[in-house]
Amino acid sequence: PTNHLQVEGSCNIWRADCRAKGGSPGFKVAILGAAGGIGQPLAMLMKMNPLVSILHLYDVVNSPGVTSDISHMDTGAVVRGFLGQQQLEDALTGMDLVVIPAGVPRKPGMTRDDLFNINAGIVKTLCEGIAKCCPNAIVNVISNPVNSTVPIAAEVFKKAGTFDPERLLGVTMLDVVRANTFVAEVLGLDPREVNVPVVGGHAGVTILPLLSQVKPPCSFTQEEIEYLTSRIQNGGTEVVEAKAGAGSATLSMAYAAVKFADACLRGLRGDAGVVECAFVSSQVTELPFFASKVRLGRNGVEEIYALGPLNAHERVGLEKAKKELASSIEKGVSFVGK
Ligand code: NAD
Ligand code: LMR
Known about the structure:
Elements: H1 16-21, E1 27-32, H2 39-47, E2 52-59, H3 63-71, E3 78-83, H4 88-92, E4 97-100, H5 116-133, E5 138-141, H6 146-160, E6 168-170, H7 173-187, E7 198-200, E8 207-209, H8 222-233, H9 235-243, H10 251-269, E9 274-281, E10 289-297, E11 300-304, H11 312-337
Parallel strand pairs: 1-2, 1-4, 2-3, 4-5, 5-6
Antiparallel strand pairs: 7-8, 9-10, 10-11
Helix pairs in contact: 2-10, 5-6, 6-11, 7-8
């Protein structure tokens, strides 16, 4: 018997064990915080992803139930559950991709930065585990405040001597998903046909939609630009207020997280032309981290695209975004320095 919750393959006569050990095609993915509001639907969607061969579900509570439930889905991935700090290393060993939605969500009236005091320590501990057990894994950070938790992850990896800027990505995909939806509504298009680059970071004014670069090419009135910019920047708060104390976006976030994780896995597989927005270590601006379009490949982030031509409204937005981002990044860096 193993010390983790090996829901499939816990009996010697089950050949799933051989499939898990024998290198069936696909990637090994761990979700840290898998029993949470994001974690559960994310785990379900990852179990449906044909690129995933092994799915590790880690949490400090309730992971046995979530693992048992999800393991009954008749899709390819072998699911294993891990509960509590003492099983973190088993959960991480051998992983190709680690997705982190662990941590507390906002309640009405809070900013994402109000989550720093609790979530910074959670992300730090989890990243120490990653540095030890799967230092080459691609890491997708969802836990807020992303503008600070990604710098925290980077500092932990630097201290451990494992930092690879190409493999650490803050997930800003929900901003793009929202922007596509809201822009499609205004234009009367199918959201699946719309692509809006969203750059900067993942909080308030740091979320900078580049409406001048929307595909398919289009133009907006000043009123539409103001409405869309504000709705995209405040999309998270819109959900927090609608949930009225019961948390923040979970279902749209799980959708966005799996869309982003799938892009990372297609990159790892060697697919060409996989481009998404993410908050990464960057030289696009003078800041050490910035969200922009990146090309994903076998090594993670293989190319970071310049911002391209910005209009006057976007240039003003960029300056505001950089000011707030600089202090959020510094807050994360100094947390680990302590
Ligand atoms: P939740 O409270 O429903 O779930 C969080 C889970 O994390 C819980 O199951 C909890 O047990 C677990 N957890 C706590 N400490 C842990 C630890 N040390 N190790 C492993 N797991 C631990 O919250 P949620 O709604 O799923 O949100 C999670 C985080 O994601 C929040 O910080 C939230 O702000 C953030 N978020 C980010 C985005 C984004 O776009 N990046 C979008 C939505 C939410
Ligand atoms: C979001 O954008 O929905 C998340 O960052 C959660 C939040 O606190 O708004």
